[in-house]
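About this split. The held-out portion is used to measure sequence recovery: a designer receives only the structure tokens and must propose an amino acid at every position. Recovery is the fraction of positions where the proposal matches the reference. Here is one held-out target exactly as it appears in the evaluation file.
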């Protein structure tokens, strides 16, 4: 065993202990959140300090086509320098041999972080908090569906078959019997997560047919985004072992609720370790209200990051477990911004319920933190706390990707937070995807327009 393995995280060391490590996957997240990279023999990884990938991986759309986002030099596919973050080394237990995966950070040849690498975008936002003496803390909730294998895109997505031999049923939220239907898949999810050293705070059945939610313990934003990045992959692999698919689409089944990635936020003072959302007597602070005000003021401009596809906007349906506006309230799941119950003032946090599970976790968390940060910098006051059912209010969030991208392009103060080069590339890639979508004729159009117009 090579010396470099002695300094791996504990879970990775445990995974390969007494075994011959065959391969290391050098991975990085692209804009959609797909793992890109190279698999290299372990002995090669041991002696290479960096490896290279073309920057064009960030110019590619979800369909695999290319956008015109390369900049003034043109599409020359310049190599990036990718450096491993060894603190992220984890097992890849679904592979056929003994394999580790390591997340890498992207730099140019001068050592400058690539501005449109999603992990670098999140690190940039976190650094702004750190410069103010703050430590942001997040806790994401992951909703997803286990569905029957779907090999024909023209066919509707259907719930998976449970162990009872019946399709998963809807409207069974928090049912332990419903969770048991997916027992073998969930067992593999737990086993994979343990091998990776990832902590699951709990798994529950959600309201959709075959819809589950995984809660993660709160912590550092970059570490939690890494965890979600890994979880999406391991959940898919666990599902494939049991002849079903895991999907993180925001709205995979028309009649069922959508899947969100709710993001809980709190901020600690770096010197004292205290939650700055709570005052000395346990009351709400100005920072708490300004963070909420920032979410209300700026989430519309980054909706294209937390709802990145045309399908994302199908999730925002009244009375269907998804917000339609940016009202805030305490312990009220109909509002876009919720203040959950906490056992004590130290646990006071703000929950953003707008983000979809289809977003890139690095970009979704970065967008949410950036909105709150701007609110704190601009001392933005929120609206009055909402009382009652927020679905009775009007819709104030963008309802389609084109509108969201227009708002994103206009938000110059947000571009300063996220990085101007990132904003440029992201907008071009997403608009290219949208144009690709507009070229597709849907079944609805064929059914209702073919002979009637």
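Reference sequence for scoring:
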């Amino acid at each position: 065993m090579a010396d470099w393995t002695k300094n791996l995280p504990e879970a990775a060391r445990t995974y390969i202990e007494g075994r011959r490590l065959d391969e290391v996957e050098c991975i990085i997240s692209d804009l959609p959140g797909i793992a890109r990279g190279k698999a290299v023999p372990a002995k090669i990884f041991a002696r290479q300090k960096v490896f290279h990938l073309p920057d064009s991986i960030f110019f590619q759309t979800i369909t695999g086509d290319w956008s015109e986002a390369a900049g003034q030099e043109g599409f020359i596919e310049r190599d990036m320098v990718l450096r491993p973050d060894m603190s992220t080394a984890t097992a890849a237990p679904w592979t056929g041999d003994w394999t580790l995966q390591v997340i890498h950070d992207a730099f140019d040849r001068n050592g400058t972080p690539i501005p449109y690498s999603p992990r670098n975008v999140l690190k940039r936002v976190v650094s702004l908090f750190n410069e103010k003496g703050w430590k942001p803390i997040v806790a994401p909730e992951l909703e997803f569906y286990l569905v029957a294998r779907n090999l024909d895109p023209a066919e509707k997505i259907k719930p998976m078959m449970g162990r009872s031999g019946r399709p998963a049923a809807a409207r069974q939220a928090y049912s332990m019997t419903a969770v048991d239907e997916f027992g073998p898949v969930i067992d593999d999810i737990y086993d994979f997560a343990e091998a990776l050293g990832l902590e699951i705070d709990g798994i529950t059945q959600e309201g959709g047919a075959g819809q589950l939610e995984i809660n993660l313990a709160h912590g550092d934003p970059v570490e939690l985004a890494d965890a979600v990045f890994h979880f999406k992959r391991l959940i898919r692999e666990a599902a494939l072992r049991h002849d079903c698919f895991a999907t993180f689409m925001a709205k995979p089944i028309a009649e069922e609720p959508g899947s969100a990635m709710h993001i809980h936020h709190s901020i600690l003072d770096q010197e004292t370790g205290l939650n700055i959302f709570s005052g000395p007597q346990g009351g709400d602070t100005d920072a708490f209200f300004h963070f909420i005000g920032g979410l209300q003021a700026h989430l519309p401009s980054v909706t294209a990051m937390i709802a990145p596809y045309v399908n994302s906007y199908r999730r925002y349906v009244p009375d269907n477990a998804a917000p339609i506006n940016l009202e805030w309230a305490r312990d009220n799941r109909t509002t876009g911004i919720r203040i959950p119950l906490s056992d004590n003032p130290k646990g006071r946090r703000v929950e953003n319920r707008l983000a979809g599970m289809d977003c890139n976790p690095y970009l979704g968390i970065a967008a949410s933190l950036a909105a709150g940060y701007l609110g704190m910098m601009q001392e933005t006051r929120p609206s009055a706390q909402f009382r009652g059912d927020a679905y009775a209010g009007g819709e104030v969030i963008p309802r389609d990707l084109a509108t969201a991208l227009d708002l994103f392009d206009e938000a110059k103060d947000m571009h300063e937070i996220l990085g101007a080069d990132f904003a440029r590339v992201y907008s071009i890639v997403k608009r290219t995807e949208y144009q690709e979508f507009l070229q597709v004729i849907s079944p609805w159009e064929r059914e209702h327009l073919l002979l009637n117009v």
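Annotator remark: Residues 125-446 form a domain with the Creatine Kinase; Chain A, domain 2 fold (CATH 3.30.590.10).
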